[in-house]
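Q: Focus on the shape:
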Amino acid sequence: MTVPANTRLRRDSRHKVIGGVCAGIARRYGLSRGGLRLAFVLSCVLPGPQFIAYLVLWLLIPED
């Protein structure tokens, strides 16, 4: 999949599961939505602020 260079980072409202953050990031960088979601869920097992970062991105990234 080729992503246009002018695609801005926005939450994906059509393919969202919770807030559309992972779907928007996947669309912007040409990644698989499912793969990015899986990587996020697996990273939540590790120590760190992953869930807080998701919530912050949910607030900061505008919806399309």
